């Protein structure tokens, strides 16, 4: 079974530039999550999709972050404009969302804003 | 609000010995799930073990077991017979308010296994 795919693996941008990350979840997983993991901390949920609808985006900084999941499969997370404090690893995860089942994570995109 | 606390920033263990990683949680929900994930230096989050709040028996998965004490709101991870490959960050997480994957993570514990 193929895992959660993310690209790119690494990205370096200057502040005020824009950047986009891509995620392809495990086939058949209706629920997709984007997490932000700042160095030395645990991941923090940014947004949760159920199919192509947003379930939870309470911690998404909507003035600069946006995300979409067209056709309920792939997802894109965008930051525009980036700030220095956005430097982090952005993890995508997917799940079937049944009780007792876990979320599967991709390898993440490491973003450095200079 | 839900919260996960991991009080051990770093732990050392001798190869082949057992180690316990602490996790306490806070929630007002009656139904929730507790997860442990391993994060090697390569960055991916690897699921280790799950405990549901209504499960009466402690969860076990191979060398991993979860010491679940509901009254004390603790969910400690026990790794038996540590291996060098167990060196990694370990995160305790709680899910369930919205879905099993909508997780609140602790800050993690860095485990180092000594040969």
What's the gist of this structure?
With 114 residues, chain A is mostly beta strands. In chain A, 0% of the residues lie in helices and 48% in strands.
Describe the protein.
The complex is a heterodimer of chains A (114) and B (115). By secondary structure, chain A is mostly beta strands. In chain A, 0% of the residues lie in helices and 48% in strands. Chain A has strands spanning 5-7, 10-13, 19-24, 31-37, 44-50, 53-56, 65-68, 75-79, 88-95, 104-105, 109-113. In chain A, the strands form 2 sheets. In chain A, strands 2, 4, 5, 6, 9, 10 and 11 form a 7-stranded mixed beta sheet that branches. In chain A, strands 1-3-8-7 form a 4-stranded antiparallel beta sheet, with no helix packed on it. In chain A, a hairpin with an 8-residue loop joins β9 and β10 (104-105). The N and C termini of chain A lie far apart (37 Å). In chain A, 38% of the residues are buried. Chain B has 115 residues and is an all-beta fold. Helices cover 0% and strands 50% of the residues of chain B. Chain B has strands spanning 3-5, 10-14, 19-21, 24-26, 33-39, 46-52, 60-61, 64-69, 74-79, 88-95, 104-105, 109-114. In chain B, a hairpin with an 8-residue loop joins β10 and β11. Chain B is globular and about 40 Å long. The chains are: A mainly beta (114), B mainly beta (115). The A-B interface holds A 31, 33, 40-45, 48, 50, 55-56, 89, 91, 93-95, 97-108, 110 and B 4, 33, 35, 37, 42-47, 50, 52, 91, 93, 95, 98-108.
